[in-house]
Amino acid sequence: MDLRIDGKRALVLASSKGLGHGIAVALAREGVNVLLCGRSGERLDSNCNAINAEGRGRADWVWADLSDETFVETVSKAVTEKLGGIDILVNNSGGPTPGTAEDITAERLETYFFSMVARIISLTNTLLPSMKAQGWGRILTVASSGVIEPIPNLALSNTLRPALVGWSKTLASEVAAHGITVNMLLPGSIATDRLADLDAAAAKRSGKSLEDVSAERQQRIPVGRYGRIEEFAATAAFLCSEPASYVTGTMVRCDGGAAHSL
């Protein structure tokens, strides 16, 4: 399928590794010029060099930390200087450390609220006017399957990410007439460093081996395995495409059928 986004400009948050990096690569392979963003200049530079070596969409990067109060200013300035504008915004952030609901403190809640919710909303609002002016835009927010089925021992994530669901759905209705789609993509168990860390934490809590924990988790997934970053990224690329112009206000799961809810 021709996604018809060759020459578009995309900002992908938290793209030094994992799902964000995978999405940036997938978009660049469709001819999109991508701006990567994260906290590791070395990894970002390496990622951009690899993308540029393929010779499709061009890649550049900006160092920015979602926990920094200057994040929105830094990234929006880089969008203007390095991309010359924006067509596609992929909101993405790292998740908080595991823990129970009783582990949540007001201080931790406030800290992660800014990095996982507030600054994503603020950046989107900053970049929206140019999308409206050109009559075309794609806003995709990566969240978690925990927004539809809370994940045990990820209480802080289960608390904060659903806030983005209500925001995303509301925004979708407000900007649809401007040719802008707003969707959410929910990863299940995708083979990333984050998943490896969660498996390791589960193994430590249970006293089981890491191999046993991983095998048991994969057995609970209908397709019988962890997802690949490339599979998740391909789904993201479609949602950012021209053929997906009638898909908005939705939450799309990429979880191998793991969620039990309808």
Written account of the structure:
The protein has 262 residues and is α/β, with parallel strands linked by helices. The protein has 2 domains: 9-189 and 228-254, 3-Layer(aba) Sandwich (Rossmann fold); 191-226. The chain has helices spanning 18-28, 41-54, 71-83, 106-134, 155-175, 193-206, 210-219, 229-239; strands at residues 9-12, 33-38, 59-63, 88-91, 137-142, 180-187, 251-254. A 7-stranded parallel β-sheet has the order 3-2-1-4-5-6-7, with helices on both faces. Helix 1 links the parallel strand 1 and strand 2 (33-38). Helix 1 (18-28) crosses helix 8, helix 4 (106-134) packs parallel to helix 5 and helix 6 crosses helix 7 (210-219). The radius of gyration is 18 Å and the shape is globular. The two termini are 29 Å apart.
Give the termini distance in whole angstroms. 29 Å
What CATH calls the topology of the largest domain is Rossmann fold
Strand order of the largest sheet: 3-2-1-4-5-6-7
How many separate domains make up the residues? 2
The first-level CATH class name of the largest domain: Alpha Beta
Family: Belongs to the short-chain dehydrogenases/reductases (SDR) family.
Protein name: 3-oxoacyl-[acyl-carrier protein] reductase
Pfam families: adh_short_C2
InterPro entries: NAD(P)-bd_dom_sf (IPR036291), SDR (IPR050259), SDR_fam (IPR002347)
